[in-house]
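ok trying again, last paste got cut off:
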Amino acid sequence: MQNSSKKMRLCGIWSLDSSTPVSLKLLHNISNILGIITLAIFVGTLTADLMGNLNDLLIATDDGCYLAGISVIIFKVYKFHRQHKRIKNLTDATYRPIHEFKKSEDSGVKEILETNKFYEDLGFTFFVTLGGFLVIALIFFVPTEDGALPIRALYPFNTTVSPMHELAFSLQIYAVSYGLMAILMMDTVGLGIMRWLHVQCIILAANYKNCRLDNQSTYLKCQENSDVILSFSTFDEQDKEITGSTDCFVARFRRCIKNHQRLLDTIDELNACFSSSMLMQLFASFSMICLTGFQAVLGATTKTSLMKFVLYLGAALSQLLYWCWFGNELLYEVY
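nice, full thing came through this time. structure:
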């Protein structure tokens, strides 16, 4: 999460702290403005090329595939800009209990945290690698004629002569790199929230099982069940039955109910922040899958173009799979 927030600050998406030096704030604003302008130019030139080649099905589907992918990036960037405080509060509410769990001596809790951290790092490495291959495939593996750009686009100037060719080429490289980095970091934040809320639900379910003092068939491996339950979150100090020294079934059960309600509130906030982004993700991924499949059947004339289509399809499928998988796991665990 920390690495993702740093890279989003580098892209100008994530807000800076008030104590940030003026020079970094200036760099943050420049990166933000430059990224938005570059994406706008990229979309505009793609749309112009699409409108001018509606009669050519291969060109139209190729442009449509790019537009579908870039549309979800622009939408998520807009959502993160508009709701950055809300998303930041959501991440704080999600990771605060996780930091408390890290202090636990319970081997079951440690095993859950370490396993999920490993798979989170593995997934992040996979998407970074896939994003790198996508940039290389888009820029260098696409078969082009002499003087043509790697991504079809219609500019208001002649891009086949220098220095306009280099200018258009640089704009495309920056737009693709910026867009892929932005979507990777934003998805890492969203998927990370879902993953660690799911972890909290698993531990909460174990706490429910541990409410009985004589229950030896527990999920957690530590016998200090009360300490694990108490470490889940901060409780109302005025509730003597919960915070008092008496350790009974009612007190434990009420603690679990309070934690359960807190988790439900956090998940409701997650839905409010990311539901529209998920809808846009479904639209973009399905569009890319359909258009890429169509292109692969009719336009895969070389190994390089076939590799490009495979990478497109893999990116769309893996992104959709990750969001649906974690969303379904979280939904199942909560309800």
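cool. Residues 215-226, 233-245 have pLDDT under 50 and may be disordered. The chain is about 75% helix and 0% strand.
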